[in-house]
Amino acid sequence: MDIALEARNLVKQYPGVLAVDDVSFQVRAGICFGLLGPNGAGKTTTVEIIEGVTPATAGEVWYFGKPSGSRFREEAGIQFQNTALQDHLTVRESLEMFQSLYNRQADLDHIIRECSLEDLVDRDNRKLSGGQRQRLFLAVALVNKPRVVFLDEPTTGLDPQARRNFWDLVNRIRSDGTTVILTTHYMDEAQILCDEIVIMDVGKIITQGSPASLLQERYQSVIIELPIEDVSGDLDSIEHRILETQGLIEISTDDVNTSLEVLATHVSGLNRMKIRQPNLEDLFLDLTGHSLRA
Amino acid sequence: MLKRIYAIFRARNLEFVRDRSSMSWNLILPVALMFGLSFIFGGEGRTQYTVGVLQSEEELDTEQHPFLDTRFVRFVVVNDKQDGFRKISRHQLDLLVEFGTPPRYWVNPSSPKGYFVEFALLQSDTPAEYGMQKSQITGDAVRYVDWILPGILGMNMMFSCLFGVGYVVVRYRKNGFLKRLRATPLRSIEFVIAQVASRLMLIMLITTFVYAGTKYFLGTRMDGSYLTLFLVALVGAISLLSMGLLVAARVTSEELAGGLLNLVSWPMMMLSGVWFSLEGADAWVHHVANIFPLTHVLNSARAVMLDGARLVDVAPALLSLSLMSVVFLGAGALMFRWRPN
Questions:
Q1: Residues A265 and A162 occupy one common structural domain
Q2: Is the Cβ pair B6, A98 closer than 8 Å?
Q3: Order of strands, edge to edge, in the sheet holding A76-79?
Q4: In the prediction, which pLDDT does A243 show?
Q5: How many other CB atoms are there within 10 angstroms of residue A157's CB atom?
Q6: Domain span holding position A267
Q7: What local confidence, expressed as pLDDT, does residue A236 receive?
Q8: How far apart are CA B303 and CA B307, in angstroms?
Q9: Backbone φ/ψ region at A90: left (φ over 0), alpha (ψ -120 to 50), beta
Q10: Within a domain: residue A281?
């Protein structure tokens, strides 16, 4: 499979802050690639360097085997985390304006349908709700029938239903062979959408691979979760890894039966107990020692 | 390239036309000012007596004749005799005197103020020891409304150009719209051309509309060519738009942009001759005023409208404005920033 994008030794130095520290990775064409990390990890800066809107202090970006340039601008679709459109334009006029900036052009009516904007096309773009605006921003990113789409924190601030609808939309975009680059701090989002991920923290990549392989490589165990207040006795006798976080005790074990027997003697009740598979948030916690949403 | 420029140009036009408050401001302000001033001054000339003193020196020597001590008369030095005659004919000067040998004076017989100030001159020459010689120059008065019209149109053009481009670009930069455009094939020069073209078209339409209205309803004076006047307005608007782009090239705060634009616009409004003539002001004031594009616009427009100046007469001013545009646009393009730091 072709390499759609390649970041080579990217560095971004702001006064007193090294925002991106020698970051390199490749993105295969046609996949959904996730860039994960907490706020301030450097993922948005990294993506903006790749998008060409922020100059790198050092490093290179390659697009389909060549240094990124005008072809990339023509073929990339970008949805920024924070952006604005021209005031006093309707949804359709906004889309038409952006489409006119490209030689590549998608069927606008198809995009409007895909992004569920049919009922909003004549509405002033300033009078849209958060979810509607996100769908419009995504539609703007699609007007040039892009080969690569960048989605920067696309579901931040959306309600759960709107987030799920957005995920469906992203999956439909991917099904056309479009490469999707997603930055997010929602682990469930990355786990559902992404084929490959890079996890960043303080400007560096701390791990990369597919979500499944990363979790499989690191964990053979499952996690038992219990509210702290349900634990009445001393758990020191349990030989498995124990963490206390957000009012919960998490016990990582590869022998659930034995662990449950021990717990039965130390807790007031198991009614609120959960047993789950480790996820990307656990992985991040293990790798960095601090919470992903910090 | 043209398709991209047109896309931004069209979007900006729609934004402006649909922004009713901005649109109203640009239309109502000049019309209200013109009609208000026309009503207040009732079409009469300015109330102060103004006498030109024809001499080669810049400094006026009040010792040379007792008339120069007359109260309530403003004396201005006139170096060019033809210029003095023209102003007498237009009633812009009430009297022109030359204390040579023999001493002479010129007055317009149809000027009421000239008639009275002539009395004052002759009274100061009693007994007629100086032997003042009288000459007459005829011509219709320039009403204040005729004189102020270019000033108001120019002022409206200045605010519209500076704020309509400068402030808007800063707003686009601050809210991330420029950053969004940066991620498209649009180049900065295409964006700048589209912004200038959009505002230029709108301001020329509005200026033409307001001018036509005042011409029709107030019968304002036009001694020159409409085409020359249009060219003056066009070149002037481009220079003011370029100045607005230069101010907005890097600024990311609307408050700072507003302050900088006021810093530029208010001196122009006070020193470029919008409301009053700088005639008689110190030389340094004229030097400062000549830095401003609006000064050249207003001087040229008045020359065309009131004195019938031809294109060749205003060509030096148009050249100055064009040079300013090149400098402002060049510096603005070099300094231009798509996004805040």
A1: no
A2: no
A3: A76-79, A148-152, A179-184, A32-36, A196-201, A204-209
A4: 65
A5: 12
A6: 220-276
A7: 65
A8: 5
A9: beta
A10: no
B27 backbone φψ class: left, alpha, beta (φ>0; ψ -120 to 50): alpha
Same domain, A145 and A260: no
Q: Is B181 on the interface with A (CB under 8 A)?
A: yes
Q: Is B337 on the interface with A (CB under 8 A)?
A: no
pTM: 0.71
Ordered by start, the domain boundaries in chain B are 2-40+143-335, 49-136
- B177: which chain A residues are within 8 Å (Cβ-Cβ)? 83-86
Name the stretches of chain B with pLDDT < 70.
20-27, 29-30, 33-34, 36-48, 126-130, 140-141, 279-281, 340-341
Question: In this predicted structure, what is the pLDDT of residue B126?
Answer: 62
Q: Are strands A204-209 and A196-201 parallel, antiparallel or unpaired?
A: antiparallel
pLDDT, tens digit (0-9, with 9 covering 90-100), for A84-96: 888 889 999 999 9
Asked whether residue A177 is domain-assigned, the answer is yes
Bridge partners, residue A58, by sequence: A11
User: pLDDT digit string (tens) for B241-283?
Assistant: 999 988 888 887 877 888 888 888 888 888 888 887 776 667 7
Asked whether residue A134 falls in the same domain as residue A198, the answer is yes
B3 close contact with A: CB closer than 8 A: yes
Q: Which CATH class is domain B49-136?
A: alpha beta
A265 touches chain B (CB under 8 A): no
In a domain, A293, yes or no: no
